[in-house]
Amino acid sequence: MKITDIVLDRLRLDLDPPLRAAWDPRPRRHFDATIVRVRTDEGVTGIGSGDTMAGFDAVKDLFLGEDPLDIARHVKAIETANFHGGRFWPLEVALWDVIGQVAGLPVSTLFGNTAKAVPAYASSAELKPPAERVETALRAREAGFRAMKIRIDRDHVADGIAAVTAVRDALGPDFAIMVDLNQSWRMAGDTAAASDLAKTRGIVRRLAELDVFWVEEPLPYEDVEGFRTLRAENPGVRIAAGEMHHSVPELLRYLENDVLDVYQMDVVLAVGMLRARTLAEVAQLKHRAFTPHSWTNGIGVLANLHVAAGVGGGPFFEFPWDPPGWTPQRRDFMLAEPLMIGSDGTLAVPARPGLGIELDEEAVARWRI
Ligand SMILES: [Mg+2]
């Protein structure tokens, strides 16, 4: 079997009204997605997405003519290409989609087949006043979610704590709340300093009192000692991070030093599917949790879902959802059918061979740049 072509479609969906993502100083007036298609001489086509693939044309020939099933080789080749710029993990996603189709199995089966569905949490995007956040949380529970992640802005901590308190009061102790402080990395051009350790210690202590399930990215990635301090001081709350770590050695260092309770490497942004699986297995063998970040588009959600369900990630899986700003229709505009959880609050792994991606070709044509 041979790879005959790798085709990229660059899509741009207009967002009107814009999305005001808590971690992005600029309102998002459009949502970009790059679709990767790996074509083969046997008629099987694999699909991936989740990152820009900017600069991929310069390294595309490393893969043409190769056997798509030689996945360990391709992962190493992607790593060598990433070193020089770009993050080409959506290509690995498309290759796994080919492999699953050739095997006649869902990719999650090849990754360990631990679960057929994973409990999902509604992962919010926007900063909302307490009453509005409660309204969205109630809507989430009505839709089946049993957990929600709330953002707290470093410059408006009191407002964020008030929103978490209001949700806890309104939804009671059985609704899990995660909090993302988004302090580990920055959008390009966002030069503001992260909150310092003293301030962050106060925030995490307060969130522990509110019985928050995990606190995500409370500090910059470099502050390994700070992460360990937070964990030692707050035995009741889990510390989560790792969505955007760019290399395996960084995450291995975290694992060796037992820095986190929850490892969150996103398979389309951080270290790819195969490496994420290996690191997740190590985390689990060390009695720590893995559940990936999945804040991209529906194809990125599926790629992360297959890895999580395969290796046994959890207990909650990230499902980007914060209506009206962020809906499955916006997030999955390139899919024939937006992904949604079941009434039991779980996101089911598609049973079809491969990743189970079905593109809406009309939407792809309409939004292609
Ligand atoms: Mg996050």
TrEMBL record:
Q: Does the keyword Ligase apply?
A: no
Name the Gene3D superfamilies for this protein.
Enolase-like C-terminal domain, Enolase-like, N-terminal domain
Q: Which organism is it from?
A: Amycolatopsis heterodermiae
Return the InterPro entries for the record: DgoD-like, Enolase-like_C_sf, Enolase-like_N, Enolase_C-like, Mandelate_racemase_C, Mandelate_racemase_N_dom
Keyword hit for Mitochondrion: no
| Family matches, as PANTHER family | D-GALACTONATE DEHYDRATASE (PTHR48080:SF2), D-GALACTONATE DEHYDRATASE-RELATED (PTHR48080)
> Which keywords, in A-to-Z order, does the entry hold?
Lyase
* Pfam families in alphabetical order: MR_MLE_C (PF13378), MR_MLE_N (PF02746)
Official protein name in the record:
Mandelate racemase/muconate lactonizing enzyme family protein
Q: Where is the Mandelate racemase/muconate lactonizing enzyme C-terminal domain?
A: 130-237
